[in-house]
TrEMBL record:
Protein name (record): 6929_t:CDS:1
Keyword annotations: Methyltransferase, S-adenosyl-L-methionine, Transferase
GO biological process, one term: methylation
Keyword Transferase: yes
InterPro entries, A to Z: Methyltransf_16, SAM-dependent_MTases_sf
Length: 247
């Protein structure tokens, strides 16, 4: 079980995914987008900022309300809340949802429909349908971290593509931490196809995230510990960007 604080850290994979989205923003603008394991929600917040018609559902572990609270705080900091009288609190814009989601869980629970912290996949998909929408994109940055979760993630993607919409694609930035870890056999099992997107294809700039090239970021960030973590870049070289869809 990963420590809940892992969901409050901007992992290097999130930068790769966000860069791809920005360079190809017309593909995501005005679409309906689900982010799995959103954590700090960098890719999702970026999508939500593209236009008021871009509908974004940010999800993370339903058993860790502190992560969901952190997502809400992030939405506030990124001015994605509806506020009045210049107050710092407010409700989410109608194009942004924050939900708890357990990977690999497909049955309806006993929770109330409007309990955003405990919804599961079937409830979420029903809510999306009732909102007159279908998913266009599913996002995940570094969701393939713990091998025991790999099949639950792939099964969740396969379920969405089989029973909600076959047109959506799963875009995930994946950091290779061991050559012995692979998801290919799971893709075959769940009848999914995959292609690797070269980081060169969208001119990803590795130097942008190195300490020697981040003086502006350092000067504009007040918390020293936060600065130190945000500029780690050594793991960027082991990140792959994958696009997965129904075979």
């Amino acid at each position: 079980l990963l420590h809940p604080s892992y969901g409050c850290y901007i992992w290097p994979s999130a930068f790769v995914l966000a860069e791809y989205i920005w360079e190809n923003r017309d593909m995501f603008k005005d679409k309906t987008i689900l982010e799995l394991g959103a954590g700090t929600s960098l890719p999702g917040f970026l999508c939500a900022s593209l236009s008021p018609q871009t509908h974004v559902i940010l999800t993370d572990r339903s058993d860790c309300p502190q992560i969901l609270e952190n997502i809400h705080d992030g939405a506030r900091l990124n001015r994605l809340l509806i506020t009045s009288d210049n107050t710092s609190t407010g409700s989410l814009r109608s194009n942004i949802w924050i939900r708890g989601l357990t990977w690999g869980e497909f049955c309806f629970g006993n929770q109330e429909k409007d309990n955003n912290e405990k919804g599961n996949l079937l409830q979420l998909l029903r809510d999306i349908d009732q909102n007159g929408r279908k998913l266009d994109w599913i996002l995940g940055s570094d969701t393939f971290y713990d091998p025991k979760d790999f099949e639950d993630i792939i099964a969740t993607i396969a379920y969405i593509l089989n029973y909600h919409t076959q047109k959506a694609k799963f875009l995930t930035s994946y950091q290779e931490r061991s050559s012995k870890r692979t998801i290919q056999y799971l893709l075959d099992k769940w009848k999914l196809k995959c292609r690797q997107i070269s980081l060169k294809s969208f001119n990803f700039d590795y130097d942008k995230y190195t300490s020697s090239n981040n003086s502006e970021l350092i000067n504009n960030t007040s918390d020293a510990a936060c600065r130190k973590e945000m500029i780690h870049s050594s793991s960027l070289q082991s990140i792959f960007l994958l696009e997965i869809w129904k075979a």
